Write a sequence for this structure.
């Protein structure tokens, strides 16, 4: 087809540049009608079921193998339970018997029997039991999609396929990647959605284009520029060549430059060592690369475990996962952040109540302190794995000293029970907190007394300090981590840590912003924990900074009254470095 | 046919992994195996059945085994349940 060159500008959810062929993915709820089946057709109907089950099993096995390859054996186990569910011979026999008896279409019978099975689970008070319903539904929705013919199951796409769709689940991302999709254009899904986290961990570019995604034709040459958010439909040959060059410069290869990094950790011109750590969310190709250079992990998110598992993973699954990370990173410290879940990340899961204002709701450490068994299970798993690496535990969204004390008390209870059972663990494991609520920054003096380290999560801190949601277009312009108020909160936190001799780090996006790095060094931040593909650039930048000058810079910046003033001062400083 | 009663002692109850372990254990034997909880009787070799029991921590299950290796089957099931499905805590 001849389409006119078109350009759509969206926002970057996961960066990178890809060139390929578009393919539209239609998604939707599968509606199954109740249809009478003639006696002569019953056999064919049952054969239909077995084919659908067989296809689902094949798909799940491929998912499992691919997950195992890319993310390690623990993640692959997630699909083992789903495989058992898909292959449950006893259940399938019952479905067959019902089809024979009722003479109804197999899709209808299967779907009704699944509903009967999950009913007691959905209404259970136990989170783990409720999650089994999610596992069962993950399987049944695949079987039903195949039965109703709504999904054409060609397992492999053409090379360099770029998928266009309304939204994708984290499982879709893993599964489509395995089918060789290289990029995504979506109309829904935020920067912090789990789909986004998984896409970033797997280094798959995703562009969010609520306006215009549905105008992209299928089977057409297309370029995703995940550095600017541009989608170019049917580009000219010149454009194509231009983007191929850009891709070579910005592709995942930036990460491999870590291998050639000469000085790690980086040292400023005047000899001050600055800690650099990586932010990770999902074990993936980046891990081994970072570990080979003994780069610490300043923030290892664990929420994805919940997502790929479709529920709270049990202790053994978590233990194996953390052990694997510990063994890989060895002596390089890894800060594991306990589950940071909330309605915004889990709206599709039935365990979370609807909330009017999820950002101010039941999220972060709050649900974990109530669902104590889940929290203790995670702590037990981390502690058991702590002998295999150098772990630290970080608690998200602490807004009050009482929360920290309560969490510490629960951690101590777990330690005690492990000791009683003579299970070895790192008894000196450090327990730190995220400072991402303004109240924590204001109370940093007391919190720094009680916690072993503080890490400033500037993404949420900015949203709360300025009461602006960066994903809401109407107020996104207000959201800026360089706002003087945010900088004052950071200053308070750093000061409190210095007073009590506790390490302080920044793990929000602004920690990887070249403009802001000299400021944070000048403020005395010990470690910047950043996206792995920023490490090489930031290390190079640090080697050109003089820490005394950075300190003077910080003093003047902290006098600023507006974002503009802050930026002007930072820009002047960074131009001066560039000239050298 | 022989029967026994077992209590789910692991804290998290019969969730996905323990259910899978229980079914894998039951499936090793030729005997027919059934679990009953509060009147709900399910086939012990069906993961969907075992999940449907929604057996929480402290739940009692009646185990029935019927077949040539019923004694061994019952022993194996008692063992895996009593070990708390290898969960610590």
């Amino acid at each position: 087809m001849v389409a006119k060159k078109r350009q759509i500008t969206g926002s970057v959810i996961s960066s990178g540049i890809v060139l390929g062929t578009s393919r539209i993915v239609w998604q939707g709820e599968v509606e199954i009608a109740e249809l009478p089946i003639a006696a002569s057709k019953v056999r064919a109907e049952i054969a239909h079921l077995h084919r659908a089950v067989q296809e689902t099993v094949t798909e799940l096995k491929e998912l499992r193998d691919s997950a195992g390859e890319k993310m390690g054996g623990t993640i692959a186990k997630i699909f083992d339970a789903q495989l058992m569910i898909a292959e449950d011979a006893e259940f399938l026999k019952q479905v067959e018997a019902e089809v024979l008896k009722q003479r109804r279409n197999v899709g209808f019978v299967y779907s009704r029997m699944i509903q009967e099975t999950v009913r007691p689970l959905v209404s259970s008070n136990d989170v783990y039991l409720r999650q089994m319903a999610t596992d069962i539904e993950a399987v049944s929705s695949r079987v039903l999609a195949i039965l109703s013919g709504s999904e054409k199951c060609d397992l492999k796409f053409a090379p360099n396929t770029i998928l266009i769709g309304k939204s994708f689940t984290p499982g879709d991302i893993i599964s489509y990647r395995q089918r060789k999709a290289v990029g995504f254009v979506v109309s829904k899904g935020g920067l912090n959605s789990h789909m986004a986290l998984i896409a970033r961990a797997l280094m798959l570019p995703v562009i969010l284009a609520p306006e215009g995604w549905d105008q992209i034709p299928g089977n057409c040459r297309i370029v995703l520029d995940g550095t600017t958010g541009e989608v170019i439909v049917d580009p000219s040959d010149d454009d194509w060549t231009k983007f191929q060059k850009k891709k070579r410069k910005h592709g995942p290869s930036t990460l491999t430059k870590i291998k050639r990094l000469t000085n790690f950790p980086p040292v400023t011109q005047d000899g001050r060592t600055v800690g650099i750590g990586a932010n990770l969310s999902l074990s993936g190709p980046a891990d081994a690369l970072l570990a080979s250079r003994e780069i610490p992990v300043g923030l290892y998110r664990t929420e994805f475990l919940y997502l790929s598992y479709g529920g709270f993973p049990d202790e053994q699954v978590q233990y194996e996962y953390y052990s694997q990370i510990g063994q890989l990173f060895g002596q390089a410290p890894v800060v594991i952040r306990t589950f940071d879940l909330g309605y915004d990340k889990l709206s599709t899961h039935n365990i979370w109540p609807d909330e009017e204002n999820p950002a101010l709701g039941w999220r972060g450490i709050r649900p974990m302190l109530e669902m104590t068994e889940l929290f203790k299970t995670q702590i037990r798993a981390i502690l058991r794995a702590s002998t295999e690496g150098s772990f630290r535990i970080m608690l998200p969204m602490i807004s009050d000293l009482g929360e920290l004390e309560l969490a510490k008390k629960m951690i101590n209870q777990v330690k005690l029970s492990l000791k009683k059972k003579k299970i070895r663990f790192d008894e000196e494991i450090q327990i730190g907190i995220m400072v991402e609520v303004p109240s924590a920054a204001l109370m940093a003096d007391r919190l720094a007394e009680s916690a072993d380290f503080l890490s400033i999560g500037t993404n949420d801190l900015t949203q709360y300090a300025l009461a602006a949601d960066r994903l809401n277009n109407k107020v996104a312009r207000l959201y800026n981590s360089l706002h003087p108020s945010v900088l004052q909160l950071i200053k308070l936190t750093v000061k409190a840590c210095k007073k009590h001799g506790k390490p302080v780090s920044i793990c929000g996006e602004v920690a990887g912003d070249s403009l802001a790095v000299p400021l944070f060094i000048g403020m005395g931040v010990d470690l910047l924990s950043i996206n792995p593909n920023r490490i090489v650039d930031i290390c190079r930048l640090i080697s050109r900074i003089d820490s005394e000058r950075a300190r003077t810079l910080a003093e003047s910046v902290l006098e600023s009254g507006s974002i503009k003033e802050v930026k002007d001062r930072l820009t002047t400083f960074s131009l001066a470095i560039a000239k050298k | 046919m022989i029967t026994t009663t077992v209590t789910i002692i692991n804290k998290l109850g019969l969730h996905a992994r323990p259910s899978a372990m229980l079914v894998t254990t039951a499936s090793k034997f030729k005997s027919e195996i059934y679990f009953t909880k509060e009147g709900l009787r399910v086939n012990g070799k069906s993961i969907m059945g075992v999940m449907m029991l929604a057996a929480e921590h402290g739940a009692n299950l009646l185990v029935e085994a019927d077949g040539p290796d019923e004694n061994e089957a019952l022993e194996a099931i008692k063992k895996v349940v009593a070990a708390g499905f290898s969960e610590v805590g």
